[in-house]
Specification:
The structure is a homodimer of 311-residue chains.
Chain A (H helix, E strand, L loop, with lengths): L4 E11 L8 E17 L4 E7 L16 H13 L4 E7 L10 H14 L8 H16 L7 H6 L2 E4 L4 E4 L5 E7 L5 H6 L7 H20 L2 H7 L6 H4 L6 H10 L4 E4 L6 E5 L2 H17 L4 E7 L6 E3 L2
Parallel strand pairs in A: 3-4
Antiparallel strand pairs in A: 1-2, 1-11, 2-4, 2-5, 5-6, 7-9, 7-10, 8-9
Catalytic activity (chains A, B): L-homoserine + ATP = O-phospho-L-homoserine + ADP + H(+)
Main location (chains A, B): cytoplasm
GO molecular function, one term (chains A, B): ATP binding
Chain lengths: 311, 311
């Protein structure tokens, strides 16, 4: 018998991982969004409520078509000929506009919960294109660097048509989120001016080193590659104290440190959990120097995927 | 006892491999340049002669500082405190201006031969920065996508500071060289106009798929990645018949096909040697349609490295 209601949790994520703009991401353990989905007879998708103790929740759209989670469930119904509908409650745990993939997490949690209510559940790979369409409501473009790691766990290479989980050594991520909102749209606008081929070549070199390092479990190559010379220079000025926060991470042994997603969260990769924890405290202190309170998250780089949970 | 004279052969190469501009290259078996180096007491580098039955050899500079091979040997002397000198003869086998790495091959062959005459020979990794400096005489910039595979063999990721050999499945390359000269400088000038971030993201996606495919020996990923959407569209108009030649390669089963180095040689990667051979004939026929005679080369993608040979 098919359940009438399911709850899923999707973790936060670090989009781009500095060097893989719109292409690479990994999940973070701990922080995340919940979706409670109920199967209803009416052939519609309804959002009953969006809750959670993060700022701005009241401003999120309850119109399903304008919400990443609602839009994804509409796409699920349309593409797969689902005759019944869904009613949806979201419980936000990821701060809005933090660069930690909040809009993607709601979308993926809703898909994973709704999938459990289908007569014939889909694979994660089948959910991926639906998540891309949902996520596009927030960002305006199809990019899977947040939804792909949430669906598959760990570090994922996300293209427009497929999500490819990548092996990675047992490293740890420190992500420090300063308490101000950087709108994705503003962060994207900073990237509009054209680029020189030489910048592209250097960034590609870093991407190639990073991917080769991941494939070989070679931390030296990962560290050589984990440097964003293309996007970070344009976005860093939007984040007060960025240079000092990045320096704090590197001073505490980061293999590399950059902006998570569209920011303002700053992340670093570290060899050990203890190192990541120490670095996170130093990164918080650097944000405090520019009067920004912050919260910190330490997680294995090989973070969890979205899963069903007890309601 | 140290020999007084050594001869080395360096193979031709496919620079860029379409999707790794200035970063990726692989060697081709068969075609290549020879360097005969003699150890001399005078603390200088002299070029005695440049020979070979390729067009334009008489125009190549005999001034050591203006020649990729001469310049590399000068750099070898300076960086490593070599007190004796070298006298150099080059025998060109790679057509000039073909996009098959001719200037790089002379440079690498000279280094490998000279290295055998040192009291304390260097490693290939130590020769790499010297080859970069030599190659820069021809191209004006430090990029190792030709010299790196020549020094190490097979497919290599070449950065400004290191050459990283990459594993690749047993694929075959067909390279078809139409008989007209495309000057590297002109081919580079076509790339000057700035680029949009979206082009960069798509090319990065292909690079990531290609590298992941190489690391896993996954031909499907390699085929998905082997598409140059950044450089090829700007250079293709400089090569008469390019679209038809590329189509001929793809019609004959190429995983991908693009421009070798700065062109005008067009290459494709194939599953089998027989396929590569059939495709090469079709590619030649397509060049013949625009009245361009051509020569063809079929080689394992995992081609040889430069080696000492009998004088």
């Amino acid at each position: 018998m098919i359940a009438a209601r399911a709850t899923a949790f999707a973790p936060a994520s670090v989009g781009n991982i500095g060097v893989g703009f719109d292409l690479l991401g990994h999940t973070l353990a701990g922080l995340g969004d919940h979706a409670v989905v109920t199967r209803v007879d009416a052939p519609v998708v309804r959002i009953e409520a969006i809750e959670g103790d993060v700022d701005g929740v009241a401003l999120l759209p309850l119109d399903a078509a304008a919400n990443t989670a609602g839009r994804a469930l509409m796409e699920l119904r349309e593409r797969h000929g689902i005759t019944h509908g869904f009613s949806l409650r979201l419980r936000k745990g990821i701060p809005l506009g933090s660069g930690l993939g909040g809009s993607a997490a709601s979308c993926v949690a809703a898909l994973v919960a709704a999938n459990a209510l289908l007569d014939q559940p889909l694979t994660r790979a089948q959910l991926y294109p639906l998540a891309l369409v949902g996520e596009a409501v927030a960002s305006g473009s199809l990019h899977g660097d947040n939804v792909a790691p949430m669906l598959f766990g760990g570090v994922v290479l996300a293209t427009a048509t497929q999500a490819i989980p990548l092996s990675a050594p047992d490293l740890y991520c420190a992500a420090v989120h300063p308490h101000f909102v950087l709108e994705t749209r503003r962060a994207r606008a900073a990237l509009g001016e054209p680029y020189a081929l030489s910048q592209f070549v250097r960034q590609s070199e870093h991407l190639a080193l990073f991917l080769t390092g991941l494939a070989r479990g070679d931390r030296t190559l990962i560290a050589q590659g984990l440097r964003d010379v293309l996007v970070e220079p344009r976005r860093a000025p939007l984040i007060p104290g960025f240079a000092q926060v990045q320096a704090a991470a590197l001073d505490h042994g980061a293999l590399g440190a950059s902006i998570s997603g569209a920011g303002p969260t700053v992340f670093g990769w570290f060899d050990t959990q203890a190192q990541a924890h120490e670095a996170a405290l130093a990164m918080q202190a650097a944000f405090a120097q520019v009067d920004l309170p912050s919260d910190m998250h330490v997680s294995p780089v090989n973070g969890p995927r979205a899963e069903l949970v007890e309601g």
